[in-house]
Amino acid sequence: MFYLRRISHRNQTLLISNIMSKTTFSRAFWVANGVELLERMAYYAVFIVITLYLSSVLGFSDIEAGIISGLFSGFLYLLPMFSGALADKIGFRKSMMLAFGLLTIGYAGLGILPTMLENSGLVTYGMETEFLGLKESALKWAVVPVLIVIMIGGSFIKSVISGTVAKETTSETRAKGFSLFYMMVNIGAFTGKTVVDPLRKSMGSEGLVVLNYFSAAMTLLAFIAIYFMYKSTEHQGEGKSFREIGRSLIKVCSNGKLIMLTLIVSGFWLVQGQLYATMPKYVLRMAGEGASPAWYANVNPLIVVLFVNMVTRLMAKKSALTSVSIGMFIIPISALLMAMGNLFPAENLILGMHPIAFMMVLGIVFQAIAETFISPRFLEYFSHQAPKGEEAMYLGFSHLHSFFSYIFGFGIAGVLLSKYCPDPELFETREAWQAASANAHYIWYVFAAIGLVAAISLLIFGRLTREKAEVTR
After folding, report:
1. In this predicted model, what pLDDT tens digit does every residue of 208-255 receive, in sequence order?
2. What is the tally of helices (H) and strands (E) in the chain?
3. Does the pLDDT of residue 4 top 50, yes or no?
4. 243: domain CATH number?
5. Domain range spanning residue 90?
6. Structural domain contains residue 87
7. Whole-model pTM?
8. 243 Cβ neighbours under 8 A, 6+ residues apart
9. Distance (Å, rounded) from C-alpha 382 to C-alpha 262?
10. Residue 274 CA: distances (Å) to CA of 279, 360, 384
């Protein structure tokens, strides 16, 4: 009897140990997710108003600002495949220190740049000054190398943090790990966007400059955290030759199925990216300067944080592609809701909000729900395609969808804004501008159509490749 009790006790101990091993994560996992939160705070504080910064501070036109921000964000998501391959070789700790060092320099540069060029854009009235931008100066193009520094630093983060999640989890804990990772991403996004409106409303264009120092402080804090706290026991792939890296890159880039899936999912991210490319200028022009685009955009990460774990559990027994497909059909609905705001009379407030603002928020809610179905499972899907030691490269490749979506999405946004919702300052009278922007909601019809085409394409992709079968988790 005593022997049986011992066996029973031993089995219980083994069972508890087994459960703990499947439900807990390593220190490297939590440190990586913690600095991801800081990096997202920094990125979204700047990115939510990047087109406003380029236009209001540096004096670029809508189309120029759209092209610059689109190229910046597009290449930010193209480079992770290559920086991820390099990170697999040199190690994740070194890669993250390099990344956060570059990000700190870059964000500080965005803050310093207008001050360095103030002689071209600062008008003095007695003892007071007002920053008017660099509308007539070619020196404003100095922002490009600064953005390149941020782009390179950010590209390492995209691959290494998600690669760390893949390395530090098992097949049983991976879905939960990416769900937690994505929750951290959105907590950071929410917090970063929160600082924007108070600065913009209290300081005007100068607030758009000051917030860059906030972002630099966040990435510097992340650099310090990695230096003192990050340590991983997973070192597969480190020390590979550049020839081996090249062969691996060719292999992933020639995977037709992954490329096709990435192109299709780009349709979702093209619509989602309009939170930054179109929405800020659209609501400020249509609902007035009292609108709060950063707060509206914050609805997205808030909804994701609240519901991503629930949706992940709900879809736990479904394949990754099934979950992604559901989200893809939600995204065109979100764009149609955003369009509806312009169909209500401006004086008919909805719950105390301008109808443009209210319908924008409602559309963003649906957009966020779509994201909870798509993003964590899409990353999980790619992590399962990655051989040991190549996690960062494959997870970097998984971000390629945003390269396509931002390159085209920001360019399309600039053209559509100029055509349907132009800058009021370009018109002599308010009436002339109102006539020019009467069909501003057509912008969202275009993006709804893009989202619907992408969703239907994913269904066809699933049938052709038979990916409706259960994906190994």
Report:
1. 888 899 999 999 999 999 999 888 665 554 555 667 667 767 777 777
2. 22, 2
3. no
4. 1.20.1250.20
5. 26-465
6. yes
7. 0.72
8. none
9. 10
10. 6, 11, 30
